[in-house]
Amino acid sequence: MLTVAFPARAFDTNCYVVATGPGEECLVVDPGVGIEDTLRDVLEQHRLRPAAVLLTHGHLDHVYSVTPVCGSDTAAYIHADDRYRLTDLLAQTNPGLVAMFEQQFGARATWTDPTNVVEITDGTRLSLAGLDVDVLHAPGHTEGSVMFGLGGIPDGVSGQVDVDRTMVSGDVLFAGSIGRTDLPGGSHEAMQRSLRDVVLPLPDTTLVLPGHGPATTMAHERRTNPYLKDLPA
């Protein structure tokens, strides 16, 4: 499974490009701030064509470039509970965050709603770009936060770590941490349930590709992540 990860220009949000191999259709996951040039280079280098854009949730740092990446033809997939966030995104974003963003880039933030949005729900299996993607609803960071499960692993990973499947976890689970729950739409109680009922049951052989920071594995997080070790029964 061809997998390319690179950080956005703001907030260090990981954008992922996944395909069955070079010269094929691909999935773009979480196109954040200022990723267009790097994404274009990745697509050209590997001769890839975007078949869909997958969004783990609707925060600005994960979706800011969704409309230019999708254009008029490619669909963006987001959980139904976060669909509202793609409508007039900047009006729903903390003004201080928008101001910080504008100061960093020296340009006014702009937003155009994507034209083709597909709402997904828990348990949905998407068949896109020759890949089967399982949707796991894991609210807590936002109401519609999801993780995307893939049956394969990135090329070159086999033999380095004991994994046989991949989970793109968004801002649900990080290496050594979890997503914050104090933003609008977040819920500590919902996050606790998601960690207990959705994250912990994942096999130890799951490679985790988070929304920020380095990749990890469920085996490692189960042993070391304090937010998983200290979950109430």
From TrEMBL:
<dbReference type="Pfam" id="PF00753">
    <property type="entry name" value="Lactamase_B"/>
</dbReference>
<keyword id="KW-0378">Hydrolase</keyword>
<keyword id="KW-0862">Zinc</keyword>
<dbReference type="GO" id="GO:0046872">
    <property type="term" value="F:metal ion binding"/>
</dbReference>
<protein>
    <submittedName>
        <fullName>Glyoxylase-like metal-dependent hydrolase (Beta-lactamase superfamily II)</fullName>
    </submittedName>
</protein>
<dbReference type="InterPro" id="IPR051453">
    <property type="entry name" value="MBL_Glyoxalase_II"/>
</dbReference>
<dbReference type="GO" id="GO:0016787">
    <property type="term" value="F:hydrolase activity"/>
</dbReference>
<keyword id="KW-0479">Metal-binding</keyword>
<dbReference type="InterPro" id="IPR001279">
    <property type="entry name" value="Metallo-B-lactamas"/>
</dbReference>
<dbReference type="InterPro" id="IPR036866">
    <property type="entry name" value="RibonucZ/Hydroxyglut_hydro"/>
</dbReference>
<feature type="domain" description="Metallo-beta-lactamase">
    <location>
        <begin position="12"/>
        <end position="212"/>
    </location>
</feature>
